[in-house]
Amino acid sequence: MKKVIIVDDEKPARSLIKEFLESHKDLVIIEECNNGVDAVKAINTFKPDLVFLDIQMPGFTGFEVLQRLEEMPQIIFSTAYDQYAFKAFEVHAVDYLLKPFKQERFDEAIQKIMTSDSGYLSQIETLVKGLNEQETHLTNILVSVKNKLINIPVNTIIYIKADGNYAKLILEKNSHLTSYGLSKLEQKLNARQFIRVHRSTVININAVQEAYSYPANYELIMTNGDMVKVSRSYLGNIRKLIV
User: Fold this and answer.
1) DSSP designation for 231
2) Within its chain, how far is the Cα of 66 from the centroid?
3) In the predicted model, is pLDDT for residue 29 greater than 90?
4) Which H or E element spans position 128?
5) What is the percent of the chain where pLDDT is above 70?
6) Residues in a beta bridge with 63
7) pLDDT of residue 155
8) Is residue 88 very low, low, confident or very high in pLDDT (cuts 50, 70, 90)?
9) Beta strand 148-153 pairing with 140-145
10) Inter-residue contact 54 to 8 (CB < 8 Å)
């Protein structure tokens, strides 16, 4: 039995995949997503065995979704754009479905996934590694709020705090939960601007208004008025800023 998530911004496309899956009783749909941001959250939460993944979607593209996964499931890409299929998938021996596709082609893709070995996953991971190497520091973060996506410029973030397996962006007047864990998000931000001050907190050094020094720690007053404590383990990160 394999757990399946379907990711496509078009409802008819998701419905077609569900219809074609009816003849594959060992594949169980556990979630559907219509954008890349929700896809990252769902895949990292439910850890599916197989994901049907579109490429052009709101929030994150299919490529960007792959870059943000904690664990790599098996992937069947579905796309209406053959240039993406030939460039990204055929070279790496990753199967894809070019829309519109029929049941026979769908079944072929399923058969390939069901009989694939670890070599398939290593090919996917190679693709993701290559994409990550091309990625620069994040300048904007898209977060999901109800049925819409909000664009957050990273320069407007005051600090970031861990919230379970995710990270919460603290802004001047509100906050938003992201699909990243704190450590993952920290890696994607500019280390010259965002530094760790606690195992559960990363700050924007441009948003520090005042700092109070104590024998064992610092207390930082941020521009939104919040106080952030610097733990003993991360005192060196703050002391480097003192001139």
Assistant:
1) P
2) 7
3) yes
4) helix 118-134
5) 83
6) none
7) 92
8) very low
9) antiparallel
10) yes
Q: Quote the CA–CA distance of 87 and 83 in Å, as a whole number.
A: 6
The position carrying tokens 């480097």 is 240
Indicate the pTM of the whole model.
0.53
What is the rounded distance in angstroms from the CA atom of residue 169 to the CA atom of residue 143? 10
- For 184-195, the pLDDT digits (tens) are 899 889 998 999
Query: What pLDDT does 68 receive?
Result: 87
Buried b (16+ CB within 10 A) or exposed e, 57-81: bebbbbbbbbbbbeeebbbbbbbee
The CATH number of the structural domain formed by 2-134 is 3.40.50.2300
* Nearest residue to 9 via CA among 72, 49, 52: 52
| pLDDT value, residue 120 | 52
Q: Say if residue 215 is preceded by a cis peptide, omega within 30 of 0.
A: no
**CATH number for the segment(s) 140-239:** 2.40.50.1020
Distance CA 49, CA 3 (A): 5
What is the amino acid identity at position 118? S
DSSP code at position 85 = I
Domains 2-134 and 140-239 share a fold: no
Q: In the chain, what's the furthest Cα-to-Cα distance?
A: 70
The domain locations on the chain are: 2-134, 140-239
Residue 168 sits at φ, ψ, to 5 deg, of -110, 130
Of 3-7, 11-15, 132-136, which gets the smallest average pLDDT? 132-136
Write out pLDDT tens, residues 142-163.
787 766 667 788 999 999 999 9
Sign of CA dihedral 38, 104, 123, 117: positive
Tokens representing residue 222 in the block: 């941020």
Question: And the tokens for 44?
Answer: 């990292």
Alpha-carbon torsion (49, 54, 58, 60), positive or negative: positive
